[in-house]
Amino acid sequence: MSETTTRTTNSEYEQANERAETPTTEQEVCPECGGPLVTDEERGETVCDHCGLVVEEDEIDRGPEWRAFDAAEKDQKSRVGAPTTTMMHDKGLSTNIGWQNKDAYGRSLNASQREKMQRLRTWNERFRTRDSKERNLKQALGEIDRMASALGLPENVRETASVIYRRALQEDLLPGRSIEGVATAALYAAARQASVPRSLDEMTTVSRVDKTELTRTYRYIVRELGLEIKPADPESYVPRFASDLDLSDEVERTARRLIEAAREEGILSGKSPVGIAAAAIYAAALLSNQRVTQSQVSEVADISEVTIRNRYKELLESDGVRDMPV
């Protein structure tokens, strides 16, 4: 075969490949009207959302072949394990031996079998942590999960805190610092990154370290890991405080307006965002004729009533309101 024929063959082969790939890119829109395509999973079809043209049918269903109507039935029929997660020291890949002393048929084990299973559980727990770093990580992630549960933080915050702690452990930032201190600092940073912050006092309440150690460790972790964390915004505390006090959406909107007015006046600088949010909630409740006491707000926000009184007056003045009762 000549060189010219070879080049022609290669060129035809490349053109054929291009033609074969072209429909894949064109299937993102309807070939008739150019409208967006949607997938109907129940019928296994891809149809145009505008004109209804069926672009593809008899698609492969990659889901399970069984149906489940509740969580228990789903767990019983499922043949796969849980997804990997950074909230466990081994990412959930190791095997757990169940605590129920029953066999595969649901029958109770006899005394000797129970003793044997207990020994197996003990050795299994020992083998799950191979070295001191894994034992450290296991303890820290348990602390993060405990504190997050007590503070009502969502799962994404726990995941982020776990990643921050893993990075600190990998970069050898723990020597000279307690596991509890670094775990608390990681959770505090993760909550602020996710815009669901908790105050230092709230963190200290559920943590096993004091406020001084928490702030010192937090600054060190943020500096060494280069975490990008914006200053706490008072508005991010407002929904939680309003919910805990069972106040209406009107109060929440008014509190946000007061905070925005105070920001424009420049009186937020250098003041605690928790105190500003609590005072805004108290002032907004009074303006909306929904009575709430300073002690109730103080208890929810975990700050003093004196702080609420001082910030409350400043917020009202920035909004042009005078002579409101204290």
Automatic annotation (TrEMBL):
Q: Which UniProt keywords apply?
A: Metal-binding, Repeat, Transcription, Transcription regulation, Zinc, Zinc-finger
Q: Which GO terms describe its cellular component?
A: transcription preinitiation complex
Question: Which HAMAP family does the entry mention?
Answer: TF2B_arch (MF_00383)
Question: Which function does this protein serve?
Answer: Stabilizes TBP binding to an archaeal box-A promoter. Also responsible for recruiting RNA polymerase II to the pre-initiation complex (DNA-TBP-TFIIB).
Q: Where is the TFIIB-type domain?
A: 26-56
The gene coding this protein: tfb
InterPro entries attached here?
Cyclin-like_dom (IPR013763), Cyclin-like_sf (IPR036915), TFIIB (IPR000812), TFIIB_arc (IPR023484), TFIIB_CS (IPR023486), TFIIB_cyclin (IPR013150), Znf_TFIIB (IPR013137)
Family annotation (SMART domains): CYCLIN
Annotated GO biological processes are: transcription preinitiation complex assembly
Q: Which GO terms describe its molecular function?
A: DNA-binding transcription factor activity; TBP-class protein binding; zinc ion binding
Q: Does the keyword Methyltransferase apply?
A: no
Protein name (database record): Transcription initiation factor IIB
Organism listed in the record: Halapricum hydrolyticum
Which regions are flagged for Polar residues bias? Answer: 1-14, 83-94
